[in-house]
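INSTRUCTION: Work out how this chain folds

Token vocabulary: learned, describes local backbone geometry

RECORD BEGINS BELOW THIS LINE
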Amino acid sequence: MVLTDASLLITEACVKAGADAFIGYPITPSNKFYNYGSKRFPLFLAGPDEISVLQWMTGLSAAGKFPVTATAFPGLALMAETFNMAYMMELPMLLIITQRLGPSTGSATTGAQGDLSFINGLISGGYPVPVLCPSNFEDAWKLTEESIKTAINLRTPVILLTSKEMVMTQKSFDISVLPEINKVNRDHGSINLPYKTYKSGNNFVPPFIPVGNQEHLIRLNSSTHDDEGMIQKNSPNAIANTIRLKEKMEKRLDEYTFFDYDKQVDSQNLIVTYGISAGAARNAVEELRNNNKEVSLLVVKTLLPVSEKIIKIIDSYQNVTFVEENIGGQYKEIIYGKASRPNVKQVNKIGFMISPSDIIKELSL
């Protein structure tokens, strides 16, 4: 047993999985990542601001490094343009986002789950970004590896969505339960010649070769481009390449879809939650079942894109309650839109964590 926090677990998992550069700009509540990253990564760079951080990450990724940073909403907002650039250039990297109370700078020392709607629209044109979200310390370890694996396998930036309470709260934890993490394989396999930077095969992902190699010409481009990386406005090849950015995320979604589904037979009541609110939901389900209330629990760990597996589970229940620490129910709106449904309830809070009694009260009405 050791006294630890998710910041340390995620940092260690990054290094073990092969991430070799941390570029940071300190912001609460991501400060611990900056501190741990400066000690653990082979390369650590302190950026002068968040815009520079992601610009540097883009260059490092293009050169073959796997870069990581950690920030909160104000930093992510400043990174949005460069994030789109890295997405279009298809550069693997990991952004750890620690949610805090908004809007704007809000309260830097108060947790929340309020960034999902912004991330869902982060890429111009509505293209999906892989977003994984740990619900406990075990997830923080395992999903970090999966996030890096997804970034490399899909050639894309990936977001690991955390929260202030998860990454800053220390507790006694048995690290022996954590599985070994091996360095993620970055071997691009065989190359079809002549090599074209954005020419993909049946897996929708072009082989990644870093700039500066001695064998192939690499042409990276964040504007609409063809297979060779040449700017094209509306040629069939360029449009197909742009469509492929969406296809690779959605057609390979099963590879990075993670969730816990605690199904109670014959139950028509389902609680849906994620991240830091999952702990309260698990305790609430245990108490409800002890009081002969039939209820199932779905803890979503891959928030975006939304898997059809998640939709099918939710649609199989007569009554659904979404539990999330924000004011409007952001994940609920991603699933159902703005329309209200008589069989869908919400448990929401801002400024305070959701408690098991909040959930039990809603399901008892």
